[in-house]
Structure formats: C-alpha cells, structure tokens
Design goal:
The chain has helices spanning 4-18, 21-27, 30-52, 63-96, 104-128, 153-160, 162-183, 188-195, 201-231, 239-242, 254-257, 261-285, 289-305, 350-353; strands at residues 137-140, 144-146, 249-252. It is an all-alpha fold. It has a 3-stranded mixed β-sheet.
C-alpha cells in the first residue's frame, strides 16, 4: 500500500515553502522563517518516507534516519503552533506600540523570545518524549517512520498538551491583534511605518490571516490527538517497565494498523497538515507583487547565464506600471496653448527631433512652457 497523493503534495510543499524564502529572509521576520523551517522539515520527512516505504515495511538500512524523523515528528506540531504564537505575538507588539521607534535591544529581546518559542519549545518536547517512548520506533507500510508514545497521563503533560496550549494562546493574541487593527485602522499605516517592522497593511493582514488559518486547521488536529490519548490512557507502571527492550523496532503492514477509522485518522491526518499549510502559505505570500518581482529577477538572472532560453521584450520591462497619480496642470500667469506653438525648424538637437514621433499621440504637448517633474516612489 502507498499514499501517492501524500508523496506528491509533500514534494510540492517542499518547493512552495522555499520559493518565498528570500523575501522573508530579507524582512527578518523570525516567526515566518521558523514556520517555513518546520513546514520544510515535515514535508521532507513525509516525502522521503513515502518513497522509501512505498510498498514495504522492511527494516531501514540506516535506522538513524527514523530515529531523527520520529523525533522531529513529535516536534513538528509543537513547532507549527509555536510559530503561530510568534507571528500573532509580533503583530500585537507592532499594533500596540506607542513608541516612535523600536530600539535594537527590544528587537534582540523579541528575537530571543521567538527562538525560544519556535525552536526551544519543540526541542524540549522532543526531549521529554523519551520519558514515554516505549521503544525505538515503528515502521508503517506506505508511511514509514512513526514515533511510539506510551498512552498514559505522563504523556499528556510531556508531549500531547503543548501544541493545543500554544495554539489557544496564539488564538488569544490573534484576537488582540485584530482588535488593535480595528481600533487604530485609520492611522495604522503610520503605526506600521513608525515601528520600522518592514510591514505594510497588506503584509500585516496576510500574516494575521495565515496565523488564523494555522490555528483553525491545527487546533482540531491537536485536540483530536489529545482526546484520543486521554481515551486510551494507561497507568505508567515504572521507568524500567516502559523502557523494557527499548531498542526494538516494530513493523506493521498498512492493513493491520489502518483497520479502524480512529487509527487511520491518527496516522494520516498529522501527515497531511504540513502539505496543506504549505499550499496556504504560498497562496498568501508566494503570489504577491513582491514575490512575482522576485521570480522575474530570478528568471532574468538565469536567462543571462543561459542564452538559449527564450527572450521576450517583457523581460526588460517592469511587470506592472505603478499608478503614481500624475496629471497636467496649467501654470498660472502663462499663455498656455494646447497645440504646437513652435516650428520644428526652430528646434535644434536630436532630443527635439526625436519628439516628432509623438505628433499624433494624444495628451502630449510640444512647445510652450516645459516643466520638469521629478516623481519619487517609496517602495515598502
């Protein structure tokens, strides 16, 4: 047995989360970068496992892969929930800020908190998992490495409850961020600029929407895992009993372990969360104007090094002409004419001769008073 769709979408998810990476790296948004990292790790594990154990459940030639993958499997849901908390917490800090600028010390503290939540918390849960790890790992046909957790009360506090807890806290921050946005929406653009957060209103709303989707999709999945563990809880006899013959590896054909609906959901649902979130992440940030401009620069760079690629005139033009709001005004105190008032033979120089091709162009005025206008456009 194999899950072809999971393998395909996991592979697509790897690509989708990496495409917007340069933009977020330049923006130095720690929460978004950590989310990209955890989604990439999850998609990579599910993609490799789905290929290696396509139609088999044999012992791996290198068990160290499953040792790492099964531990990361425990850390991924905690990492995704923690990054949602990092994002919503940052949005609240920006929206509630009354200071003109954020000091360098405040930025370092915020970064340290984000790293503590987005990396330290998942690593802590992965370490605590050893308390309730009954044996090394399982191999499931078509899905590969699966972590093993003794279903007792210690497992609830060591592993299971962290992800729902972080997601609920993130939801609380999200509500506060939305409240600040609605309360200060008229001057919100000024608030974002004064915070020097490299965000504009559209980016702020996209981050809020992304965190909301993470919460909406992630909370039911983590609550389901928590409820299943509560229903299947067993007493924790002792450390030695739980870790007896710890180094063994158990192998399961898909037909035996996916026999019931509850078991199928427990195995399949967590693996689909990462590809789904990767697609949603790309829809929010991978098709923006900035992202499309980044892809165009990549193509021009590749085309410059590979001249055999097709060339189009659009490659040297901007993707979209910005609307700068220009207009033509008649200067006061001047005799303004809407038609040509100077003869071509009185104009010398190639610059004016080149203007002959604009004779039939509507809205172009030759002669009269020439006004030089300099338009500056700030790109946020």
């Amino acid at each position: 047995m194999h899950d072809l769709s999971l393998v395909i979408f996991s592979g697509i998810g790897i690509l989708l989360v990496l495409l917007p990476l340069p933009l977020h790296w330049r923006a130095r948004n720690a929460g978004t970068l950590l989310l990209i990292t955890w989604l990439f790790i999850a998609n990579l594990i599910f993609f490799v496992d789905g290929i290696v154990w396509w139609n088999s459940y044999d012992l791996p030639s290198s068990p160290i892969w499953c040792d790492i993958a099964s531990k990361l499997f425990i850390g991924v849901p905690v990492g995704i929930s923690a990054t949602s908390l990092c994002i919503t917490r940052r949005l609240v800090m920006i929206a509630s800020s009354t200071a003109v600028t954020i000091t360098q010390r405040q930025k370092h503290i915020a970064l340290a908190v984000d790293l503590l939540l987005g990396i330290g918390m998942p690593v802590l849960v992965m370490a605590l998992h050893y308390i309730v790890q009954a044996h090394r790992f399982d191999i499931i046909e078509g899905y590969g490495c699966q972590p093993v957790t003794w279903p007792g009360v210690p497992a609830l506090f060591a592993v299971t409850w962290w992800s729902p807890l972080l997601t609920i806290i993130a939801a609380g921050y999200g509500i506060i961020a939305l409240r600040f946005f609605l309360h200060r929406r008229l001057q919100f653009h000024t608030v974002l600029r004064s915070s020097r957060s490299n965000l504009d209103s559209r980016h702020y709303l996209r981050l809020m929407a992304l965190a909301s989707v993470d919460i909406i999709l992630g909370l039911p999945a983590t609550l389901f895992t928590l409820i299943v563990n509560i229903q299947q809880r067993q007493s924790y006899p002792s450390w030695d009993w739980v870790h007896l013959d710890w180094s063994r590896i158990e192998l399961y054909p898909a037909s035996s372990i996916l026999s019931g609906a509850q078991e199928t959901i427990a195995i399949v649902l967590p693996r689909w969360l990462a590809p789904l979130l990767s697609i949603i992440f790309f829809l929010f940030f991978g098709v923006s104007i900035d992202a499309m401009g980044e892809y165009a620069r990549w193509y021009r760079t590749i085309r410059a090094k590979a001249p055999f690629l097709p060339f189009h005139r659009e490659d040297i033009l901007p993707i979209a002409a910005p609307k700068l709001g220009s207009t033509i005004a008649k200067p006061s105190g001047a005799d303004w004419k809407d038609s040509t008032i100077a003869n071509d033979d009185t104009m010398e120089g190639s610059y004016f001769n080149d203007l002959d091709r604009f004779d039939s162009t509507p809205g172009v005025i030759r002669g009269g008073i020439m006004i030089a206008v300099s338009v500056e456009r700030a790109v946020v």
